[in-house]
Structures are given as structure tokens and as C-alpha cells.
Amino acid sequence: MSSPTPSPDSGALPNAVKGILCMITGSAIITLNDTAMKWLTTDGVPVGQVMFIRGCVAIVLVYLTMRRLFGRESLRVNSWKAQLARGFLFWLAAFIYNHALHHLPLATAISLSFVAPLFVTALAVPLLGERVGWRRWTAVLVGFAGMLIMMRPGGDIVLIFATLPIIAAFVGAVRDILTRKMSATETSASILMVTTVMVTLTSVPTAFAGDWIMPEPSHLAIMVAAACCMVLAHYLVIESLRLAEAGLVVPFKYTQLIWGAVIGFAIWGYVPDIWQWIGAAVVIGSGLFIFRREITLARQRR
């Protein structure tokens, strides 16, 4: 499971490239999961039930798949304290963000939550000892500006509600930093297993708070597909943080906005306006600059 430490002669480029590709692919698959969730909830299935059933399926998928591919030893937990802390942070970020979605327009909540890479970049310096130069700092800020152009949040929102996605982003950044630190002792499979179980257990109160609605067979099929997407996406995100510096790979979460625009047009016929395309171009340009900068740094290390 653990990636070997690159030799001095090999440089950091191979793992950096793999980390970026894992984050981009994971972000695309997360969007597929979100699409399934949107489809189910708009079709009348309660959110709590969807999360609970999806989580139960995900637990089975994680256990069977990880054990078969990597062996039972891959699920062994070395630090329960770190594992439970990450699971709690994962749940807390989702809990706060869901409250933000309740009070804010979707575009506003998404826009504000994408300050997470700024938090990760800042926290990676004191907590991980990573070196982030001014060029990558600038690229992250430019990407953030492009995201704002694309989403164009409104200016008439209540301040206390506007802080919710920012707090959720900070909690998510701490979670990502902890994931990076845990990679030295914990396998991606064990991290995914513990987190999936914790998030599923925390969805129990909301799943059974009201009257239980029996899902249709088509709904169950979509939930299974969503569980597959969720498991694979989270595994790829965990691997990306294992393979490369957090300050490098986290900005590529921005690509989720691009995938959302494509899927939104394909399924619901929504066409982004010119400002959203401009914002997307800025985000992509920022990501490409970070990638090019990492290549330059990797060559200098050789």
C-alpha cells in the first residue's frame, strides 16, 4: 500500500504526477457521486436514508475490495487516535457544510468552501514542514479568484451563515493535513475503512428521524453506484495526499467545478455563461502552472 520513498536520483516527479492524477480523477468521481445524490433526493428519497444506505454498501465494498486487493493486513489500524480524529473531522466538515447549504445558495456555499486549498497551503508549512514558494502561493490565489469569477457569489448574504462553509473548509484542511501525516503509519485502506464506518454511523439519527420510505429498485441501484463512486473517489484523494505534497495536489480539487459544469449540461441541460467559462479557464491555467512549477522543482532536485 505504502509508496516507496523515491531515491535522490529519481526525484519527486513520478509521485507528484501520480498525486495530481489521483486528485483530478477523484474529483471527477466525487462529482458523479454528487450527481447520484442530487438525482435521488430530487426524486423524493430523504437525504438521511440515502447517506445511511449508501454508507452501509460502502462499508461492505471497502472491506471486501481492500482485503482482496491488498490483503487483510492492509486494514490493520496502527493509530486509532489519528484514525478516529480523521473520521470525526470528516463528519464535522460535512455536518457544517450541510448547514451552510441549508442557509446559503448552492453557488455561494461552494465558492466559499473552496478556500480550503489556501488553508492547506498555510497549514502545510508549520504542520508538515513543506516548502511552498511564492509562485505556488500566487497560483493558488489566482485559482481562487477564478473560482469566484466562475461561481459569482451574491453580496446580500448573512455574515454568520457565510462563515459556515469557510469553517467547514478549515476543518477539511486540517483533515487533509492529518491524512498526510497519517500516511507514514496508516494504509489508505484502513483510513478509508474507519472513515466510512464513522460517517455511516453518524447518519443513523437522520436516517431514522422521520418515517422510513422504502426505496424503489432503481433508487437502490443508484445508491450502490453512488457508494462505488464514493469509495473510489475517497481512496484516490487519500492516495494523492500520500503521493505528493498537500500544497501541490489540493488545488486540483478545483477541477470538480469543471466536471460539475459538464455533467450539469449533459443531464439537466444547464449551459454555463461566459463568466463561468472565463473562471474555468483561470482555474485550469492555475493548475497547469502549479504542475509546470513542480516539474521545474523536480528537475532541480536531481
UniProtKB/TrEMBL annotation:
Source organism superkingdom: Bacteria
Coiled coil feature spans: none
Keyword set, alphabetical order: Membrane, Transmembrane, Transmembrane helix
Membrane topology, as annotated: Multi-pass membrane protein
TM region(s), chain numbering: 44-64, 84-100, 106-127, 134-151, 157-178, 190-208, 220-238, 250-268, 274-291
Keyword Transcription: no
Subcellular location(s) of the protein: Membrane
GO cellular component, one term: membrane
A matching Pfam family: EamA
Presence of keyword Membrane: yes
Domain EamA stretches: 18-151, 165-291
Entry's family note: Belongs to the drug/metabolite transporter (DMT) superfamily. 10 TMS drug/metabolite exporter (DME) (TC 2.A.7.3) family.
Name of the protein: Integral membrane protein
